[in-house]
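BUG: 3D viewer hangs when loading the predicted structure for this chain

Environment: internal workstation, default settings.
Expected: structure renders.
Actual: progress bar stalls at 90%.

Input used:
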Amino acid sequence: MPPDRAIRALMAEFRAAWNAHDAARLSAVFAEDADYTSWRGNRAGGRVGVRAHHSAGFQATLKESILTVDGLKIREVRPDIASVDVWWSMTGARDEAGALRPPRRGLMDLIVRKSERGSWEILVFHNVELPRDAPGPAQGTTVGTRP
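Structure tokens produced before the viewer hung:
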């Protein structure tokens, strides 16, 4: 499978796992030695850390959240490494007091790599929440992609 298609499939699985609120399934798209940073700056190391981080969220503030991919930009750095920008929006998230949060949007910056098994995995994940008036995906970005 061409890298572009394989990486889109990786992001489709990420989104599907998120919307199923399945931390084990979500963590499976990460490398064993992944580095993860949330929109709040919380960090998790490795697939195990990513799973633990999301298990807590999926049982609380994110248990009804729905993630949509609004745009996707892939830049191949080498045949086995790519940079991926993912513009996202979310509904259904709650704050720590249980109140429904307004719709959110943000940007995930990822470094993905082709594993020894030949599948793509997330190696580095940084997420930011964008203000409502921030620009969306750049021109030439695949917008409205539901990977």
